[in-house]
Amino acid sequence: MIEVRGVTIGWGGVPLLVDLDFTVADGERFAILGGSGCGKSTLLRHLIGLEQPMAGTITIDGAPIVMGDDQPPRAGVLFQSAALFGSLTLIENVALPLRRWSELSREAIEATALGRLRLVGLGGYENFLPSEVSGGMRKRAGIARALALEPKLLFLDEPSAGLDPITASGLDELLLTLNTDLGVTIVFVTHELQSIFDVAQRCIVLDRDARGIVGEGDPNVLRETATHPIVRAFFHRVSKPL
Fold first, then answer.
1. Is the pTM of this model over 0.85?
2. For residue 73, is it left (φ>0), alpha (ψ between -120 and 50) or beta?
């Protein structure tokens, strides 16, 4: 599904991560991990196509990422804040991609958007504004919008950030359901260890000092077998020496 080869990313000509090589398989649940400031969200922006790498190639289904107003998105995206339009109801938010990229009638768009909200457990809340629902419900509405065009690939940036453990667990279960029932490939950035162990089948661990990947594999296996000190510290919640 995704192939990253020899990719270097950074800001202002200064490399942040260098010579990245990894793949994400079709239908896989893949996590991007690492400490704060290591470049996780920056890498995600490059995978989405919002930024271009300084070197190397990123392809989805064998084709380079192309972003532009004349190109429909090839993936759904949930940003950390959910990024819903506050003046629009939940169903209006979910309908936006359909209105922009589909040729469905107004009635069909509304029915499809309602179906996506029901898929994420928000049936009955379609006419609520984002300010009228909880943070977890806003995240679910953001996922519904990301799924509006039935993408094969879903990117999520810190989906559980700011949520209580029960709500976060429910969101993890939703991601598992979407992956199992719809076959959606899921790539997500997170710090939440429980979400990592419950959801991710495979992961990469980034490190700012190494400027690259210091661990890769099944997170449950890495927790027990990793020898790299950064990887072990991450999975066992061990702080770095001051």
1. yes
2. beta
The ranges of the chain annotated as CATH 3.40.50.300 are 27-52+64-75+153-242
- Residues paired with 64 in a beta bridge: 59
- CATH topology for 27-52+64-75+153-242 is Rossmann fold (3.40.50)
CB 175 within 8 A of CB 142: no
- The size of the chain, in residues, is 242
Rounded Cα distance between 155 and 132, Å, is: 25
* pLDDT one-digit tens code per residue, 136-190: 999 999 999 999 999 999 999 999 888 899 999 999 999 999 999 999 999 999 9
For 12, counting Cβ atoms within 10 Å of its Cβ (0-12 exposed, 13-18 middle, 19+ buried), the class is exposed
CA distance 241 to 239: 6
Q: CB under 8 Å, gap of 24 or more: what pairs does 114-118 form?
A: 116/144, 116/145, 116/147, 116/148, 117/90, 117/91, 117/141, 117/144
